[in-house]
Amino acid sequence: MKTIYTFGNGKAEGRADMRDLLGGKGANLAEMNLIGVPVPPGFTITTDVCKLYVSKGREAVVELIKDDVVKSIHHIESLTGNKFDDPDNPQLVSVRSGAPISMPGMMDTVLNLGINDAVAETLAKKSGNPRFAWDSYRRFVQMYGDVVLGMKPQNKTDIDPFEEIIDKVKAEKGVKLDIELDVDDLKKLTVLFKEAVKKNTGKEFPTSAWDQLWGAIYAVFDSWNNDRAILYRQMNQIPDEIGTAVNVQAMVYGNMGNTSATGVAFSRDAATGENIFNGEYLINAQGEDVVSGVRTPQQIMTEGSRRWAELQGIDEEERKAKYPSLEETMPECAAQLVEIQQRLENHYHDMQDMEFTIQNGKLWLLQTRNGKRTGAAMVKIAMDLLREGQIDEKTVIKRIEPTKLDELLHPVFDKAALDSARRVAKGLPASPGAASGQIVFFADDAEKWAQDGKQVIMVRLETSPEDLRGMTVAQGILTNRGGMTSHAAVVARGMGKCCVSGAGEIKVSYKNRTVEMGGKTYHEGDWISLNGSTGKVYDGQVKTVDVDMSGDFKAVMDLADKYTKMQVYTNADSPRDAKVARRFGAKGIGLCRTEHMFFEGDRIKAMREMIIAENVERRKAALAKLLPLQRGDFEGMFEAMSGYEVTIRLLDPPLHEFVPQDTASQEELAQELGVTLDHIKHVVASLKEVNPMLGHRGCRLGNTYPEITEMQTRAIIEAAINVQDKGFEVHPKIMIPLVGVYNEIKMQADIINRTAEAVFKERGKRVSYKIGTMIEIPRAALIADQIAKVADFFSFGTNDLTQMTFGYSRDDVGKFLNDYIKAGILKNDPFQILDQEGVGQLIKMAAQKGRATKPNINLGICGEHGGEPSSVKFCASLNFDYVSCSPYRVPIARIAAAQGALEN
Amino acid sequence: MKTIYTFGNGKAEGRADMRDLLGGKGANLAEMNLIGVPVPPGFTITTDVCKLYVSKGREAVVELIKDDVVKSIHHIESLTGNKFDDPDNPQLVSVRSGAPISMPGMMDTVLNLGINDAVAETLAKKSGNPRFAWDSYRRFVQMYGDVVLGMKPQNKTDIDPFEEIIDKVKAEKGVKLDIELDVDDLKKLTVLFKEAVKKNTGKEFPTSAWDQLWGAIYAVFDSWNNDRAILYRQMNQIPDEIGTAVNVQAMVYGNMGNTSATGVAFSRDAATGENIFNGEYLINAQGEDVVSGVRTPQQIMTEGSRRWAELQGIDEEERKAKYPSLEETMPECAAQLVEIQQRLENHYHDMQDMEFTIQNGKLWLLQTRNGKRTGAAMVKIAMDLLREGQIDEKTVIKRIEPTKLDELLHPVFDKAALDSARRVAKGLPASPGAASGQIVFFADDAEKWAQDGKQVIMVRLETSPEDLRGMTVAQGILTNRGGMTSHAAVVARGMGKCCVSGAGEIKVSYKNRTVEMGGKTYHEGDWISLNGSTGKVYDGQVKTVDVDMSGDFKAVMDLADKYTKMQVYTNADSPRDAKVARRFGAKGIGLCRTEHMFFEGDRIKAMREMIIAENVERRKAALAKLLPLQRGDFEGMFEAMSGYEVTIRLLDPPLHEFVPQDTASQEELAQELGVTLDHIKHVVASLKEVNPMLGHRGCRLGNTYPEITEMQTRAIIEAAINVQDKGFEVHPKIMIPLVGVYNEIKMQADIINRTAEAVFKERGKRVSYKIGTMIEIPRAALIADQIAKVADFFSFGTNDLTQMTFGYSRDDVGKFLNDYIKAGILKNDPFQILDQEGVGQLIKMAAQKGRATKPNINLGICGEHGGEPSSVKFCASLNFDYVSCSPYRVPIARIAAAQGALEN
């Protein structure tokens, strides 16, 4: 059994594909050696050793690897010419953990291992920088004490014993910053640190490099089974058995003097995706100096340096003097770096983010990884690499992070304008995009102001269907209450409208028409700006810019369509939404909610008349008024979606959502309908429910009031015939909501078929239509084999299915969801990311049962999850026919669907 | 293939065990012949013929059975000496359907088939009763027209064309009753009827007996696939393939004169179970005369007749003259009947309910079946039959209808008193028993009045946990709203207290302290009586009687325990309930709800203080006040259940149930706690939820406020140690409610174990305890394999599991449930009878998954279904360890569990 793999000087015993054995870090260090990149030499103790450590214990493992560790340290010494544990010519090393899957919660890094008093003296002399030597030493003692000897407090609010000592020393000296401590202070700190270790552990701090090394190795292996690591594995379904590797590597320093430097570099521009090598460095510095902001980092390339100086208003002379490029200061190293970054990109076929250190004129790469980038850069780089022949089409698709596309689909704030904007509140990023407008509090006002040509932002405690018209004309919506799936959030996403929800810190007063936030009282008409992608709210009007959606974006989308096996439909309640979605590539409507239509214009009156009706005849009379309006709605939808399927859901929400709750409106309604206020109040009270989510709604309405289903079916079929007559191609699908019992769908289907046949007879022509159901009640999934006898299609309503499978009310889950995610009880919000383990099990079961009855049954989902990538891939893995999502999520779903097809 | 089985004159080709082939009725008619009971001769066309009729069509079947039908009619003729289709010596027959499983919705019966004008004349002459002949004729035409020729309106509100004619004829004659029509009128009706048939069907009414017979046979087979029959089969999971048989039998008449009679008889007393043959008869009468109440029926036995006369205040002379027994009027027939009833009982080994007809001095049995009986009679008869050696122990258990035991467990109204009582309202029979009391509307008053020694009935719109103390002292509860599983109903059943819920017609005014019902306004203090077994409400005070629970009742229960494999536990929240349940045979507590305890006495104050607390410290301080109180509660439970398991559920309901909703109480609370009213109002508002059922409750509370779980665990463990110290045997089980995610139970279990260990350390001794969970969220069933890693036991909370699996809110389901049951969408209320198809699937899955992880995991249920027989049997079929139900349902569950064990 080979327990250790060495690397260094262009050779390595491991490879990139030995990730399971060497961990991600170890495999990658080996690979860089193999392609000739200069990497400090070292070795990797395998994950197999970790497994043995867990099963057989420490002694067995030491016995097994002792000789190999010594040999491997000699391997490092032979390449560097230094000696481990030798005060005259010391070799220091770093020790890092590295599992096959990146795993926070484990022991991470110990640097400068091998140091002691004598070594520190030697380092001070050799580097000519005693401060560096002693700072390294005291840092090592602290790091080793905290991490290896377990002195770091478990509770974050408790104080690290080493920090306590530093504070005391600084206080005695009367200084505030670490940098103000001199060499003597650092020496003193080291002594105090070691005393603290003795007091705490009862043992002297180890001065032998070998003792230090073994302690660090044990610490890595022990950390594999600490509570945080176990919890992380549980939450991420990582097996406990895979173990971690240990990487030991020679230390190199960028702060050894003026021929030393350190920096970070990107093989392409991470913001725009342009193929320009770029990066920053500092001479005589450590890695953390580059990012700490104490010194101003310089550009690696002269070209980039000049552009940078121009932006900063620095002239060429000053630039050359104060901020020369690496090309100018260390031309050989710079040329080598340019060559290496190209080699790494060509090898990994992706934009690389690299860390390097130059020690005494010699360049070392410490890390390379695929670089993080913006959505725009992601798209451009992928398509550029395709055109360069570096990657193929499938790889382009796999490279796209679907959610990042969102950045490309909504207006965004101008970066400069945003930098100077004042943030006044933060809520949930409920619906992406940027918007500025004048504050209004009521839907009526929003409409009036918008008619006057004003841009408005609706600010509400929460929204309800009555606010719909106001939301339609507003630039954005800000609410005090409600989560990512609150009414405001769901509706806004459907409209592609910017929304910040659940901003708990703002104080809304409808009475005074004010909202307090960021220490200021805003009145109706004051300007604010919302970033729905971040949840941030800004004072005043912040400038926005639009993003280009053609070019590479379109090319990526075309590739997705080429490889996908699943269609992407959209949830749309109006022809306008349908058109937007079609532009984004939607291939049908998977959910058209008819209830939103009932709030438009005067039709709410007829709706209310229907609800208040005391008998079937009066109800039918009121429904007759709604019929032509609904028919008109559906005609618009069918025309906008000509050639594609349009799935119309029958009335779903409980009736109480349609009746006025305040006495004034109730009085008005009573007068209009010629009934008493008492009667209205009685009806409104009788509609009240303890748990409306589980109440009289969905097909329960259609089954207790069949005349509603009749009217809606008539409107759909008549509209389909009318639009077909105009030469369009119509494909209506009628969807019955909230089915849980076989007879529910059977009876609804009977009504639909009977009504459709009646219309066909009247009109003397037919259209083909399909009948299906939402699977959104757990019981529906359990008896899907029966339901499929009647249903042509299933559309999984994952919002409600999640509510009932978990027993969580979307409206109330905010009371404990954040606590649950913080405590690690839930990995994430199941209303955002489909719970494949629980809810997914029901979906899978329903799909199987449905197909057992009807092999070609049409399957899709239309919950909020239809636009969430992991959920879309889950649907693809079940060979669904389509997912349906809000218009602005269509491109995201298209990519995710294609990725799902490639993964299967 | 034998298509027809004949019977008659003590011979039969069929047998009782040929039910599948001959249907229930046909098999039974054959059997009676075989044991020598005189039955009018006839024949049965098999279910196989029906199957052919469905698959091959009418012609094929006629071809197949034509000759056999003719032969079988000759068989009847040979035994009766009459001739079918012969006007001089006519043989009339009845035609009845009869499937292997009794099935309403099909064609039922056509009597007097074979009649026409000539036959009617003959009948009139032979019987000397022309009215009988012509009434039989016109009835036949109507029955045949309705049933065979399809003239019965499908819609129940439409008028039967024949009834229309009768009404017209009666109107012309100026009479009101059918009986007022004379022979000429009946002749006229027959003519009009036949005209209506011609008008309606386009064909003459068939005068040939053979045509009539074939028409009736077709009609039976056709009715197998009519809508109602199909729906009934669907709802009752009866296979479509089994088909129905057709029974053709010679007619006999009890109204041929004074040597003819008809009656019904019981082999034992159906009310008391006493072994006394009894029954009623009428001379010269038809079956329907006995039950119609126009004439007073006479007793069969002289002994019975004397007892009857005494009760009626009729002296022996008058009795003998007006109401002689059959023994006195037709001694030979009576003696024969006595002998036959004994033979039938000995044959069927059960009390028989018989119909007989005496035609011209000759006794015929038309039907025998196991007789309906009261709960008391059921128990007595079963035990008597066991002692008589007629049946064995297992049969005794199978014979008990579990729900009928309920009659034996609660006080009932005195029958005579009830007869004269005025019914003023009707609600749901929410909790059985009878109770009288004075009306009170508020819990406080109930307590005060009860302290004064008054009997009170609480009348409420609905009840809440705040009413608990009032309910405890009340005789019964009447509510305006809420179903069988409303708060009032569930709590009342738990207390074994009479409750009528959801009496929608009553009008309660808290303000006036009045309730309007039955046209009268009742004030506080007025007397009413409730029957919780029927849902009826009576004016005034109705006398009640208690029932004996020893003797045969105890004997039956002992038998149940001998054969059951599943234990019956009880749901009990107080030592008093626990003791009652133990007396009823409960072997443990399956659910002790700790929240009810928080309402008792002053402890609600500490509970509120805990909820209002702004931080952990204050919350812990309030919990510390609750600790000794809870510990005391648990001590009482452990003592009462010494030797048995006590399952204690941690806090479950949402906190808003504990805080006062009205400003006055809130002000009081604010003063007590020294906080502002605004703060109280803020907390109360923040606890409000849109769907509290799916909100912040169950273990979600324990996970966000771990200190609650700590306090409750400490109370349980300390109580267990204290009670163990006193010499009792304690078996605490700690039950975590509303688990849906693995980490929820893991974290709760960690808290419980940690707390328990702390207590053990403090006290220096240990008790063994178990940790388990309710499976009441669909997701919990889906991931039961994970949950079982932590849980020692699962208790299925079928109430909530039903709510979430169906998506029905128990509190709101009343809005559509009745409509659903009426329309046949649901077979019954899933909150009363466990939905084995949907919810049961989840239970089965969870049981399998749980056992896969932990083969010996302890399984039970504690929902309302734990006392419902079919649900208990379902649990038995899954080899559950226990079911838990309210104390008064324990005996029912014990029998059902034993029956389940015998069925497996």
From TrEMBL, chains A, B:
Name of this protein: Pyruvate, phosphate dikinase
Protein EC: 2.7.9.1
PANTHER family named among the record's database cross-references: PHOSPHOENOLPYRUVATE DIKINASE-RELATED, PYRUVATE, PHOSPHATE DIKINASE 1, CHLOROPLASTIC
Keyword line: ATP-binding, Kinase, Magnesium, Metal-binding, Nucleotide-binding, Pyruvate, Transferase
Ranges where the Pyruvate phosphate dikinase AMP/ATP-binding domain occurs: 20-388
Cofactor(s) this protein cannot do without: Mg(2+)
Pfam families: PEP-utilizers, PEP-utilizers_C, PPDK_N
Gene3D superfamilies on file: 1.20.80.30, ATP-grasp fold, A domain, ATP-grasp fold, B domain, Phosphoenolpyruvate-binding domains, Phosphohistidine domain, Pyruvate Phosphate Dikinase, domain 2
